[in-house]
Amino acid sequence: MTQPTATYSHRRIVFVAFIVMTAIIAWLVRHAYHILNTDKTSTGDLNALWFITFVALAYNGIIALLERPRKVTTSQQARLDKLNVAILVPAYNEDLALLKNCLISILIQTRKPQTVCVTNDGSDKVDYTILRRNAEATYAKYGIKLVWNDTPNHGKRHAQMVGVDHTPDADIYITVDSDTILDRHAIEEGLKPFADPAVQSVAGIVLPLNMDKNLLTRVSGVWEINSQLIDRNGQSLFDSVMVNSGCLALYNAYILRKYEDAYLNEEFFGVPVKFSDDSLLTTYALQHGKTVQQATAISFSSTPEKVSHHIRRYNRWMRGSFIRTWWRFKYLDMQSYAYWLHMFKWFQTLLSVYVFWFLLFSGAYTNGDILPYLIAIPALIAYLQSLATLTVRRSDQSFSQQLIDFAISPLTVVWSMSVLRICRWYSYATCKKTGWGTRKKVEVGL
Question: What's the structural domain count of the chain?
């Protein structure tokens, strides 16, 4: 397949559209609030709740749009060029073509790594023998050291640390999932924030490789892109990214070496934790300095094409998120922006639950006067957040395809407020189920 590429750029028209749509939503919220308070069937005063929700929405969007990718001077670039970079690629029952294209995308980088460590973590559904032989020969021609290890199945964290143990001279580690294809500038752009010695980790952007496959991949793809370019971009403005994407993340090598034992042996109430590796590494990095996102460091990765796979992956994410909640409250500095942002996120979660049940029991959902507002406001909020998707241009998508993705944005709200809301609370309740939950077979191919 042709290796996809993508570019990210802030566009003034997106910022203007955001301000206009925010004003429209504010006007609609005001009218909805007025109707609720003049309806005799409604009880209580939602004024403070409306205000908090609206301010949070506007704040998150504005700070996300204010964030800019890091740039470097000539002298800083010269120092970055001297860094020893190692890429960690764990593979377990990965589609053969996806892993092959992952390795090809590394070869054609504008800034090549010194070492690539592939660890076949006991795959029993795929035979990588020929791929390994060809990759070793090709990498040697490019002057890149390829370390390939075949190990019994011990999990993704162990597979990554096998690579760490083989690269004692590395200054920067890059974690790349085996189904990830890197944009050719991904490493070059991802290294730029390390020109600031205080930066300990850098999150890259992940775009769904198979976004146009079906409605599910489009809806989940829009949702995933929004979460990165809105939520994580806003965190990056304050150097407080809390979760990197395992598909493409860069770390000061010191972090992985210092916390290797804790990383490999994490437990939650006596149960070993096998997932949420990217959020744990980001939490470690936060203990030592800045964690940022570089939106120009872009990768592509396959997203689930079936509902069952999608839900299993989301449940794994949410169980990991719930477990990580306790670590953040325990270990993050209470004076840090990350601590209070994390606190406010939980406040928003509980607030949304209260508002949902209040509106349900007040009869608002069956009130013909208020119902149009309850439909229009979430739809406009979805469009507001999805403006961020228009800041990314992809070689594998036309602009008309991007507009289709933007047009279906309200479906992301419907999906997240119904199916994913149930999954989220189910995952919290079953957080001690810490098995991986996917990849027992090859589920997504190229």
Answer: 1
